[in-house]
Design a protein that fits this description.
By secondary structure, the chain is of the alpha/beta class. The chain is built from twelve helices and 14 strands. A hairpin with a 2-residue loop joins strand 5 and strand 6.
Length: about 450
């Protein structure tokens, strides 16, 4: 009996020591109790893994952040090497797929007849400084939601309206919903409500706030420029842009598809006038039927005032799978591609530029091409039917140039300006007589004109 009493006392003393943490259980492993006393000893230290980066929903923060600074999921495992590979190259974005939702209306208060606040609207606003790339960086999920309306309260029976989400977009944006154009913004400051907010709670809806509209839309950008360059790959469009502008940075090389994204440069004149030139990627046969992303390129000539067709006097062949096309066939194909895409585009003012005349030492090739162009209305039936457009483009002038050597470039620049001013005289904000005098003086100085 005394022995059992002693054992009970000993166990109680041991428990007291354990509770006060006066005994190291790793040294005194009684009844294997150590694994319960040191629960954190063998616990693995798992590092927290983040699945998504934090990106602000506030579009104004895009001014201080860039897409290259985003951290992606795999970066936490791959370290610095992954960060180098996740930097994205600059690119031109002319289309953005987005989901836009208006805010829901706030609840009303039936007992007091309180009305909930309406939900905010999702509004897009045209801005000269906006870019789709920046929108994509600020809203990587491409989801846009306005704020919900505030519910009414006992002491505030009219709930506050939810804040509108105003999204700045580039000039030339069209809003497409279910394959229909529902909005078109081509002037600075224009606004369009894409998704309306829901009504606040009221007697009409049982004092329950209504959900806002949800629309899946495409923001489709079409460049706005004075002149659009049209031609097959390697016709000299990029070289022409570098010759007539001072913007620089245009990629020039002797292979097809030098231009892989649309871009705009500016022709400067001494009287301060600036003319925007849109350099578009080269077309290929069947572009009107969206071959070779034809629609992505052709859409950018819709908003240009004048079309400048550049044609290589040596003809063109994309590769061995395509037949060789002489200059006249090239003109007919370009005419047909533009017409088949949008028939009214052939009525735009147009100029033909025969390029690479430095290859024609005696001028006989250029002379033959011009004669054949002039006789096209009578001789077009001699060409295959798949090359014949329904309506021939009437060129305002035929220029002969060499973008590589700079031959007749100044004359071409002045002539394009002259044609633009003739057709769009209402938009001229300077004395036309003075400009015509200055143009004459320019031509006297230009020895290559």
């Amino acid at each position: 009996m005394a022995a059992s009493t002693t054992l009970v006392i000993a166990i109680s003393q041991v428990n007291r020591l354990f509770s006060k943490k006066l005994v190291n259980l790793t040294e005194y492993q009684i009844c294997n109790i150590s694994k319960y006393g040191n629960k954190n000893k063998n616990k693995k230290n798992y590092k927290k893994k983040y699945s998504k980066p934090y990106v602000s929903r506030n579009p104004t923060e895009s001014k201080h952040s860039s897409q290259s600074n985003l951290t992606f999921e795999d970066d936490f495992e791959k370290g610095d090497e992954a960060k180098k590979t996740t930097k994205r190259k600059d690119f031109f974005m002319d289309r953005l797929h987005a989901v836009m939702r208006g805010g829901s209306g706030g609840y009303g208060l039936a007992r007091y007849g309180g009305i909930g606040g309406d939900g905010g609207n999702v509004i897009i606003k045209a801005s000269k400084t906006a870019m789709l790339e920046n929108i994509k960086a600020s809203y990587p999920q491409q989801r846009f939601k306005a704020a919900d309306g505030k519910p009414c309260k006992k002491l505030a029976l009219l709930g506050e309206k939810g804040e509108d989400l105003v999204l700045e977009v580039p000039l030339g944006i069209t809003v497409e919903h279910q394959n229909k154009i529902i909005g078109d913004l081509d002037e600075e400051g224009m606004e369009f409500i894409v998704a309306k907010g829901g009504s606040g709670g009221s007697p009409a809806n049982g004092f329950l706030g209504v959900k806002g509209e949800t629309k899946t839309v495409d923001l489709n950008l079409k460049l706005i420029a004075d002149i659009g360059l049209v031609g097959f790959p390697n016709a000299g469009k990029s070289t022409f842009g570098s010759a007539v502008t001072t913007s620089g940075g245009w990629k020039i090389a002797d292979y097809p598809f030098t231009t892989i994204k649309p871009r705009i440069a500016w022709m400067d004149y001494k009287d301060g006038r600036k003319v925007a030139v849109a350099d578009l990627p080269g077309l290929i046969e069947g572009a009107w039927d969206n071959v070779g992303m034809g629609h992505r390129f052709l859409k950018h000539i819709e908003r240009t005032k004048l079309l400048l067709f550049l044609v290589d006097i040596n003809g063109f062949q994309l590769n061995t799978r395509f037949p060789f096309r002489d200059p006249i066939e090239t003109i007919l194909i370009l005419n047909r591609e533009v017409e088949m895409y949008k028939h009214y585009l052939v009525d735009k003012p147009a100029v033909l530029a025969l390029n690479k005349i430095d290859c024609d030492h005696d001028g006989s090739i250029v002379e033959d091409i011009i004669e054949r162009i002039k006789s096209l209305p009578d001789s077009i039936s001699n060409y295959p039917s798949d090359l014949q457009p329904h309506k021939l483009i009437q060129f305002e002038d035929i220029l002969t140039i060499s973008t590589k050597e700079g031959t007749n470039i100044l004359n071409a620049k002045l002539r394009l300006r002259e044609i633009l001013d003739t057709h769009f005289v209402a938009e001229i904000e300077y004395p036309l007589d003075k400009w015509q005098h200055d143009m004459t003086e320019h031509r006297k100085i230009d020895k290559t004109a």
